[in-house]
Design a protein that fits this description.
The chain has three domains: 151 residues, NagB/RpiA/CoA transferase-like (Rossmann fold), CATH 3.40.50.10420; 102 residues, Fumarate Reductase Iron-sulfur Protein, Chain B, domain 2, CATH 1.10.1060; 31 residues, no CATH class. The protein contains 15 helices and nine strands. Strand 4 and strand 5 form a beta hairpin. It starts with a helix and ends with a helix. The strands form two sheets. The chain has a five-stranded parallel sheet, with helices on both faces. By secondary structure, it is α/β, with parallel strands linked by helices. This is Lactate utilization protein. Pfam families: Fer4_8, LUD_dom. Keywords: 4Fe-4S, Electron transport, Iron, Iron-sulfur, Metal-binding, Repeat, Transport.
């Protein structure tokens, strides 16, 4: 579903499974759909499972919500890699567990999952393995939740999949390696990529958001230009996404989309003046000389 549909589905599951309180182990996909704010606005009491008293909140909650790093299609397994164990606690104590995951996080088999379990922590921080790896495949009688629901989020992913050139962006595993080496990200941080904090940041965010939302808005149209095209992101990407190549292509789409728009009068006047100056060698030399003296 879309982000709004995912919020409605999760809110309905929380109401059906509990007493209006829910423990949430926050993660990228939950921030993407702004789930916490939506549940609170819907009159539900949201407890942060990663907060200082998160474990007590989880033990008291009848419903918990987590994100998912990967989904193994062959076995129907949800896989979460984390450092603090909040998602594992959510999958252990509450009676109802709701897992939210992006469509792009689905892998075919455990053989594929084995590669990613080694690849993600190494790319993210140089670790051989994540501190905690949790996997659950539905309800187990007498152990864990009585109900397990998985909500698959589209939110522009099928649009990216339909783009033959851009679909490689869906290979992103969220390691953040591209952001760690990006000189633009180093100076501006993550907020300029998406002020609401709902999308990926860094070089992959400059590709993902325009692909998912289009380049016809000012916010998304500016993102492909937030790069020096140095190529460092492509060199460190563990899944070999050609981020600079995608950025160049998206820049072309932005330019093409603006061709039919009238050029602002001040800009048009400046360009006419430059064209007139550069059309004659003497005028150009005089302009350069004047600028040098100034």
């Amino acid at each position: 579903p879309t982000a709004s549909a995912a919020r409605r589905i999760v809110a309905a599951l929380v109401r059906d499974g509990g007493d209006g309180e829910v423990a949430v182990a926050d993660g990228p996909v939950l921030r993407e759909v702004r789930l916490g704010d939506a549940l609170a606005a819907d009159g539900l009491t949201v407890h942060d499972a990663r907060g200082p008293d998160g474990r007590d909140r989880v033990r008291a909650a009848r419903v918990a919500v987590t994100g998912a790093d990967f989904l193994v299609a062959g076995s129907g397994t949800v896989v979460v890699l984390e450092a603090d164990g909040a998602a594992r606690a959510c999958a252990t104590v509450p009676e109802t567990l709701v897992c939210v995951a992006g469509l792009d996080r689905t892998v075919p088999t455990w053989e594929d999952m084995e590669v990613l379990l080694q690849l993600l922590p190494r790319a993210a921080g140089g670790d051989r393995l994540s501190a905690r790896v949790s996997a659950w495949s539905g309800v187990v009688p007498g152990d864990g939740p009585r109900e397990v629901h998985v909500v698959l989020v589209d939110n522009g992913r099928t649009r990216i999949l339909g783009d033959e050139a851009g679909r490689e962006a869906l290979r992103c595993i969220g390691c953040g390696a591209c952001s760690a080496v990006c000189p633009v990200y180093e100076r501006v941080g993550e907020r300029p990529y998406d002020p609401r904090g709902t999308g990926p940041s860094g070089p992959i965010g400059a590709v993902w958001t325009p692909l998912a939302r289009g380049v016809d808005r000012a916010q998304t149209a500016s993102l492909p230009f937030a790069s020096t095209l140095c190529g460092a992101c492509a060199e460190v990407c563990p899944v070999k996404i050609d981020i600079p190549g995608l950025l160049v292509r998206l820049r072309g789409e932005v330019v093409d989309a603006r061709r039919h728009r009238p050029v602002p009068a001040p800009e048009a006047a400046v360009m006419r003046g430059l064209a007139w100056t550069m059309a004659d060698a003497r005028r150009f030399e005089a302009a350069v000389g004047g600028a040098t003296r100034w």
